[in-house]
């Protein structure tokens, strides 16, 4: 299995560190920009940044982002005109790409999404957006209430 993260602080970092300890070659980072939280990247893992994408690939990802989270459609459509919006949009598009994959470089679409969520409102914030992308692309999801009880080898 391959494991993908957006390199956010907190549970994403803990997840990535655990995978890297076991086998960093199975870890993929999708970054909002090159060098994002560089100190937490693992040398033997794979990295791709939005700046590595063609304009066409980025537009496709922005489209899927707006489809999953229509409340951000205006932000996405204006992301190249207002720098602050571009920064916010990069994180949403990054989260979309974690699910949809990238047509090159061995970043295939996800098969399953495993999430650590706020149980009261799992669909809030960037995690909620990523869950909605999974749902829109028929990618099954599991929350910690499920995966914490899976049998261990």
Produce a short descriptive summary.
The protein is α/β, with parallel strands linked by helices.
Strand content: 5-15%
The number of distinct helices, counting runs of at least 4 residues, comes to: 6
User: What are the low-pLDDT stretches, counting only 5+ consecutive residues below 50?
Assistant: none
Report on the biggest sheet. Answer: 3 strands, parallel
Q: From the alpha-carbon coordinates, what is the Rg to the nearest angstrom?
A: 15 Å
Distance from N terminus to C terminus (CA atoms, Å) equals 15 Å
Give the overall average pLDDT: 92
Strand order of the largest sheet: 1-2-3
- Described by the principal axes of the CA atoms, the overall outline is globular
Share of helical residues: 40-55%
Class inferred from helices and paired strands: alpha/beta
Please give the number of β-strands.
Answer: 5
Instruction: Output the helix-strand order.
Output: EHEEHHHEHEH
Assembly state of the chains shown: single chain
């Amino acid at each position: 299995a391959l494991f993908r993260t957006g390199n956010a602080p907190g549970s994403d970092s803990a997840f990535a560190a655990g995978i890297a300890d076991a086998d960093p070659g199975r870890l993929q980072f999708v970054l909002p920009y090159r060098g994002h939280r560089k100190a937490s990247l693992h040398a033997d893992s794979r990295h791709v940044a939005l700046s590595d994408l063609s304009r066409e690939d980025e537009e496709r990802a922005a489209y899927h982002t707006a489809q999953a989270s229509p409340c951000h459609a205006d932000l996405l459509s204006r992301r190249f005109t207002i720098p602050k919006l571009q920064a916010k949009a990069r994180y949403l598009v990054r989260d979309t790409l974690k699910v949809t994959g990238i047509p090159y470089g061995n970043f295939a679409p996800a098969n399953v999404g495993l999430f650590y969520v706020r149980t009261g409102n799992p669909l809030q914030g960037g995690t909620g957006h990523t869950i909605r992308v999974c749902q829109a692309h028929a990618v099954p999801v599991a929350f910690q209430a499920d995966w914490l009880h899976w049998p261990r080898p």
